[in-house]
Specification:
Rossmann fold; alpha/beta; 40% helix
Length: 499
Amino acid sequence: MSVSIDIGRGPDGSEIGIDLAELLATRLLVQGNSGSGKSHLLRRLLEECAGQVQQIIIDPEGDFVTLADAFGHVVIDAGAYSAREIEELAARVRQHRASVVLALDELEVEQQIRCAALFLTALFDAPREHWYPALVVVDEAQMFAPAAAGEMNDEARRLTLSAMTNLMCRGRKRGLAGIVATQRLAKLAKNVAAEASNFLMGRTFLDIDMQRAADLLGMDRRQAERIRDLQRGQFLGLGPAISRRPVAVQVGAVRTSGRGGGQGLIPLPEAEDGAMEALLTDRLTEAAAQAQPVRRAPPPPAPRADLEDAIALPRVLPEVKPTEPRFDPPASPPAPPPPAPRAAPEPGTGAAPEDIIRAIALSEGASYRPAASLFREFAIRCRQSGTASAHIDLPRFRRLFAMAISGLDQTDEPIRSAIIAAAEGVEDDLLAPYLALLIAAHTGTAMPDEEELGRLYGSASPSRVRRLLEHLERQGRIVVREDFGGDRSITVPIDPVIA
């Protein structure tokens, strides 16, 4: 069955369409400078064929999420999922033939590239029984298939180029029809651009891009000047799904709109002399001193009821608290502060050794001091108070200190016994942060954040805290989950026998 997608009108007012069946077999390349109407063209194409074929949209700017309101697309907020969940989502998208928008706008550029590469690769690697026809639209394709490495590291570039090449070169047999849009052909990898058989070329000013566009359209150098004179929303089309000869098309109207700023002029606000300056500088120092919130994506529109259970993954992790983003530059560790001065207890009072250890643990900066220094202070305090301490050696002191600084000695039985049993075999220098994680897991409170874990570990270095968590995870004592937005969550497997 042949279905024609109406994308606009020709110079004589005739309808210009795209043969959907032919498009699925031959792919499409859209090119045009910023403001030429590429996104408008893609939106028109997607709206006209919505409901007739599955649509998968890689959206780095969040422009196409509004399709969910009118056509039921499922919006996947990439920043809310881990790498493994992104791959699983892609597999379920193919299995259930859901039309989706992968919204990448809340991620940094390199995170966008990695996330899109993982998603596209998982689409490509779907099992043969899920090879249903689907349009895969990649906006700003020069980001994901760059002609040169630029500032991207080699690993990310290999990953994304492989994914885009598979989509355009080998995707047809798997039912994937790539539609790539780019601002500049010179920035798009040639292996990706060369696999498209259909072209829609918009306004272009640079000679190198204009000449490449003219070559793809089969136009000579003199005819190539037409590309520079195109107006916004005007494209030259060629290909088996469009026309056997270059044809001009004025893209038609769309029913939805993007989330970008308005294109028209808006009157400036009126203000009396000095009022605007006062508005800008009022309480500026106080505002700048406030902590900036972590950038998070707005909640995506609710997916269709018949797809929600099929695509959405369980997101509830009760023992989770996000930490600061892992991509923030690590702070330089501050010098350990000296212990706060305190009055020595009266000799002969006979205080319990555990009370003395707790007092040391509560002193400022105690966790940053060497264990030998803390043990010497413990011995001095015991002599001053007349407390017998010969039965407590350095290893036992370190474990008692970890229990005190983590707050374990303040918990009630039987939780305390269960936590002590669960922490059996943990190295002394890791014990305090691990006990804090166990306490949060057993009591149902929020997990300690990165700063608190660093204090318990005796380090202000985020990288050392990450290595601590990786070590505990390799031992099977915790499960660390990090999403593309940089948020980390920690879960402690609890043995139901001792919980």
